[in-house]
Amino acid sequence: MRHLLVLLLIKFYVFDLNNCTGGTVKNGDHKLPTVGISVLVRNKAHTLPYFLTSLYNLEYPKDRLYLWFYSDFNEDNSIEIIEKWVEKHSLEYKRLYVITNSSSGSLHNDEAKCVQWTPQHFTHVINLREKALEFARQMWADYIFMIDADVFLTNPLTLRNLLLKEMDIVAPMLISDGLYSNFWCGMTEKFYYKRTDDYKPIQSREKVGCFSVPMVHTAVLINMKTLASDLLTYDPKKIPGYNGPQDDIIAFAVNAKENGMELMICNEELYGFILIPLEENDELKMDYEQLLNLKLLAISRGRPLPLESYMEADMQYPKPWKFGCNEIYMINLERRTERRKLMEMSFKELGMDVTHFSAVDGKRLDMKNLKERSITLMPNYEDPYHKRPMKAGEVGCFLSHYYIWETIVEEQIPITLILEDDIQFVPYFRNRFLQLLREIEELDWDLVYIGRKILMDDKEEFVTAHTTKPLYSYWTLGYLISERGARKLLDTKAVGQHAPGRRVSTHHV
């Protein structure tokens, strides 16, 4: 049964369900630990659909989970999204608390904009963190998982894996679209971030495992079964002799260390992703662009941010267009359906109108009978770096591009963007690409790489602020080509006097 209590315009929902399950109980079987999950939400309507889906997808018995949401000082519809999710899933959890305050306004009294971390903002968050700890203690929860609403756990086993470690305080390492993550490897005597040689190898997962660090935040699992956990606090005022900043995560880290509790970061698996916090001079809308960057990064890692189907209808995507080009092609082997699916997801997020071009499959090429297809390999050709002849896959790749060049010339397409199906879009790709088009307007160009392996970087001459005249390069990940450029490539007679008949198909994605 759901109970609703309204006090001073603050909504407080409590849901309780005690499930009885059938099946055989074996002697010695134990229940999994109970976990309280604390979520603070402010202006996260754009992240909540993905966050809530990833939370729901955690493979852990929901009748062992207590959820505690608190949301106020919003200027978007965060509360409505939470309530919609609660309405659908509340009865599946052991108990679910949602506290929302729609009358708080959008700013604290000392804030000029919501992204500022002012004294009142810090004090408010510290008080909420303290309430979350108290919530876990009152529920007799074995653990509490402090997680923010801009975390996306794409690994459903995250919670199970962390619990198995039986550590006092542990966090899953989260990836952003830069070097930012949810841990520090160093802290100065004045409690500032300290650069160390350990950070990057852990963040990039060159070193894999669980590591003791001075700071973890944003997604932190705390063992509440230890006596020391009763001394944990986020409030600087409760820490004897504390002379650090009014900051919840720094106070918590210092307090945990003083009470002999080790903070650990674990990166042995890819657990999920995290947004980079906004700076005080940023606008909230910049968070939307950063979310797009993160979604594209997750897609490129083969871990797209999850989204429940009922939330899909409320999502808005850019209207597809050609990004200032006359045509965009994506080359993809028909048997590589997963690559195509992931690329189509990226195109949808970017609003990119792309035509799919079925690639020539090198596995179906008979390298001994290429002459029958009017293809002749250059005598004694070998790769200048690997010192070997071309492979069948490379021949197939070349032919795929060749057939597109033919299409460009036949259809007289002025500017074409050609992409392969294993590319990763850099952060702020749309803005960067359009800037590139503006920069090369005055150049007399035939082909412009937008993705390649640069082999002679220090010897290349800049011709605009962001373009150079390329020397020998590897890969054809992505490039712009003009009709004239395509014609020049065809005029090289790269496949003999008679090009093989095109046996590929195109369709829009």
From TrEMBL:
Q: Entry's Pfam families?
A: Glyco_transf_25
Keyword list (alphabetical) reads: Glycosyltransferase, Signal, Transferase
- Name of the protein in its database record: Glycosyl transferase family 25 domain-containing protein
The answer on whether this UniProt entry bears the keyword Ligase reads no
Q: Which SUPFAM superfamilies match?
A: Nucleotide-diphospho-sugar transferases
Q: Which domain of life is it from?
A: Eukaryota
**What Gene Ontology molecular-function terms does this entry list?**
procollagen galactosyltransferase activity
Span of the signal peptide: 1-20
**Family statement:** Belongs to the glycosyltransferase 25 family.
